[in-house]
UniProtKB/TrEMBL annotation:
Gene: lacF_3
UniProt protein name: Lactose transport system permease protein LacF
Organism in which the protein naturally occurs: Pseudovibrio axinellae
Chief location of this protein within or outside the cell: membrane
Gene3D superfamilies: MetI-like (1.10.3720.10)
Location relative to the cell: Cell membrane
BP terms from Gene Ontology: transmembrane transport
């Protein structure tokens, strides 16, 4: 019997597998069960309470005819593209600079990572004060004599999304930097020695040798950041409440408002299903790249 246990992969690390069973069961019941419930009832005419009155794709047709939803999609695309590009570029540059064994490295790491320890609500309130035209940065600089200085991103319908972007990048870029630094530090020292012997400049070593070797770290960071972008909510609530008007609306806020404030469960679940599909589109290719290729290898 003991020989069978050792030879059968099912019995390997049996204690660890038994200990993980409650977590696995909770994940299946809560996440998978709630996800299926969300998708099923998005095809119903549910209002304040779930109803089994199925209406096909009516909720989705209505969703994509609603200007508020279309604006929220446009906003999340703009926010997502800029957030991904900026956080990855700046995060990697900061990680490469810190990797140069600078003095007070721990202090700089702490300073850059500290904003990530704050909640988005705190970040949103602080940046709302900073960007407020009547009492923030604009008012402070004008009080010094520069009367023509203008920095009112948060007050403009076309610029408010960039105010949210500034706050989001301030909070999240340090986290990307730490992940990138971990990826850089995991690179074999022999590669650096070979690059120095060949006379390859440091920036070329990072760009053409180190970055391709960090594919796993980059993909994992991409999934984490992209999933956070899709569910952006509390920063918007704290800074703008979706205003001016609906110009800074995002999908997560749309879902919350329709499910709880307006009592339109079917419409909120339809929007939530679209968000869930978006997250799956991000995660499935990542899972294939990370695990599918390893199995083939």
């Amino acid at each position: 019997m003991s020989t069978l246990k050792r030879s059968n992969p099912l019995f390997r690390n049996l204690n660890a597998k038994i200990a993980a069973l409650p977590m696995i069961a909770t994940t299946l019941v809560v996440f998978l069960g709630c996800s299926i419930w969300t998708v099923v009832y998005s095809f119903t005419k549910s209002r304040s309470l779930p109803l089994n009155d199925f209406v096909g794709l009516m909720q989705y047709e209505r969703l994509f005819r609603t200007s508020r939803w279309l604006i929220s999609l446009e906003n999340i695309v703009i926010y997502g593209v800029f957030a991904l590009v900026f956080s990855f570029v700046v995060g990697f540059v900061l990680a490469a600079l810190i990797d140069q064994k600078i003095r007070f490295e721990s202090t700089f790491r702490t300073i850059f990572l500290y904003p990530f320890a704050l909640s988005f609500i705190v970040t949103g309130v602080v940046w709302q004060w900073i960007l407020n035209p009547t009492m923030g940065l604009q008012a402070s600089i004008r009080s010094m004599g520069w009367e023509s200085f203008t920095f009112d991103l948060i007050a403009g319908r076309d610029t408010v999304i960039y105010a949210l972007l500034i706050a989001g990048l301030w909070q999240g870029t340090g986290f990307v930097m730490v992940l990138m630094l971990a990826g850089i530090r995991s690179t074999d020292d022999e590669i650096w020695k070979a690059a120095r012997i060949d006379g390859i400049p440091t920036w070329k070593t990072y760009l053409f040798i180190v970055i391709p070797m960090m594919r796993g770290v980059i993909m994992t960071t991409l999934v984490i950041v992209a999933a956070g972008i899709v569910k952006l909510y509390d920063l918007v609530v704290a800074m703008t409440q979706g205003g001016p008007g609906i110009s800074s609306e995002v999908p997560a806020k749309y879902v919350y408002d329709f499910m709880f404030a307006r009592g339109n469960l079917g419409q909120g679940l339809a929007a939530s299903t679209v968000m869930l599909t978006t997250v799956l589109i991000i995660i499935i290719p990542w899972a294939y790249l990370e695990y599918g290729r390893k199995k083939k290898g």
